[in-house]
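RESIDUES AND SHAPES:
===
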Amino acid sequence: MRRLFAPAFVALLILAPLSARAVEPDEILADRTLEARARALSAELRCMVCQNESIDESHAPLARDLRLLVREKLQAGDSDAAIRDYLVRRYGDFILLRPPLRAGTLALWGAPAAILLLGGAFVFLHLRRRAAVTAAPPLSAAETQELQSLLERDERDRA
């Protein structure tokens, strides 16, 4: 049983640092509640360099600048919504990892479903066309009679 857990434990130890947050010790606020708010906000904001990570996870210099900006605004007394609105005004809805559903972001929300539907329709039509091409036309009456006589002759030859 130990042999089974040892590789998993080693893999966990190797991969654990990869999931660590990118927040540097000099960024952490002394006030724990403000730091918790900063982490929550940072987890919702997209890194404009990496684009698939939050600024809380990204090691990009721009992400660090954004984390520091969020913490400065929190220390200045801004609300979470005010900070989010400021960043959206500055960078657009793209900075949000979960952009709101609006007319402008409808393509972001609808594109995956549209691509899936179009892909499914393409596969369905392709398979349908392929099945129609490979299907043999039905036999005529003369062909059916000839096939029947050949089968009967084959049975007689075997007997």
